[in-house]
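Dear Dr. V.,

Thank you for agreeing to look over these. As mentioned in my earlier message, I'm a first-year student in the group and I'm still getting used to reading structure tokens, so any feedback on how I've presented them would be very welcome. I ran two proteins. I've put each sequence directly above its structure. The first is here:
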Amino acid sequence: MAETRPEAGPPRPPEGTGAGTRGPSPWDRPEPEEIATARMVLEPLTPGHAGPMLPVLGDPALYAFTGGEPPTPDGLRRRYTLQSAGSPDRDRSWFNWILYVRGEGLPAGFVQATVDHGPAGPVADLAWVVGVPHQGRGLATEAALGMRDWLAAHGVRAFRASIHPLHDASAGVARRLGLTPAPGVDEDGEVRWASAG
């Protein structure tokens, strides 16, 4: 299982950012695109993904580290509609992709990023979830690397993630992304991982 709160919206934004409090964004936000990896296709999220994703998010075991519970069909459609519409904050962008393993037909999970594009440059908070039947195959790492590389190609240079301190699988993904953990835990009981620089 990968680290995020699958029952919630996009990853939590960094502290201290407020809607509409800055001048024009210095980052030229790209439109989400399909991302191809060695074994997967990452499709930009649409409300139509809600139905196929219900079984992925329906296993209570998926919430062992994040808390929460499986979404309802209506709740997931509303969430995906909101996420697909994009962030209302002009200094923040939401990116969400659904993971499809080639030849398997049904989705295996999702990756997402909240990009804060303030004066210091774009910083991405990353999250990933792989459904229980698909775990242990390296899909979270492959998808997260694909997402990171796509964001980096569009000017993002700093990356972060929040991970439960006992979630070894997600810590492994973060290490593969080049992130290192900060000491201690934050107010949510999670370890903040960040790229160097």
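The second protein is here, in the same arrangement:
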Amino acid sequence: MNNLCVAHRGFSSIAPENTMAAFLMAMERPEVQWMELDVQLSRDGVPVVIHDFTVDRTTNGKGLVRETDWADLQRLDAGAWKNRSYKGERIPALSELLDRSCGRVRLNIELKTQGDMYPGLPAAVIHEVRKRHMQNDVVITSFEPAALIEVKKLAPEIQTGLIIDARPGDLLTALRQMNCTFLSIEYTNVDKSLMNEMRSAGIRVMAWTVDDKTIMKKLAAVDPELMLCTNRPDVWELAFQETSSRFFRP
């Protein structure tokens, strides 16, 4: 089992998702070579790491991310909802995570947007990535094709990827039209035919989100190049150890 382990929103099964606590915990794990995160814009244009369009679920605040200034987002507690021991964790700026992860792990940066909700989001993320010369250390992904097209227009050197939760018949055509070289797909849609098709087209595939050890091993058996996105890097490690022991038992 050589499949790359991608920590979904950091080590989010233990620490509060998309916080520095979760990301730092993930980076301490030798099996984690990639991390996935979600980025939106504050009202004053700061790229911030948070999944939901509102702050309601993962902080002690209320309201839309895009209607809240960065100074106000910084004041919110983004940890106590998960566990009292994480009280005081904050919503990170993308810049902070890039600074801490540079040279340690690669990043799957999801542009969290719908339609024209965040017209300045691609440019803002690209600015932070280029500022740190991390173009080769990231892939920028989104459910929103227009956002990916904008990324390639502004930064053709950065890898982009489409996120989907189904498998349309014209998938490869769509990926080629957007110049995507990465596919992030819900794991139940992965099989050998998909992997063969994507490999032939030079497209890397990541399956999300897999926390079950048995499913991890089944997916690993489909293709060793399939990346596995998980909230549980510790379960990935168990799956790896069990698979390795089966092949290398004396």
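From my reading of the second output: The domain at 5-41+105-248 is CATH 3.20.20.190 (TIM Barrel). Strands lie at 5-8, 32-41, 47-49, 106-111, 138-142, 159-164, 182-186, 204-208, 227-230. Does that match how you would interpret it?

Kind regards,
E.
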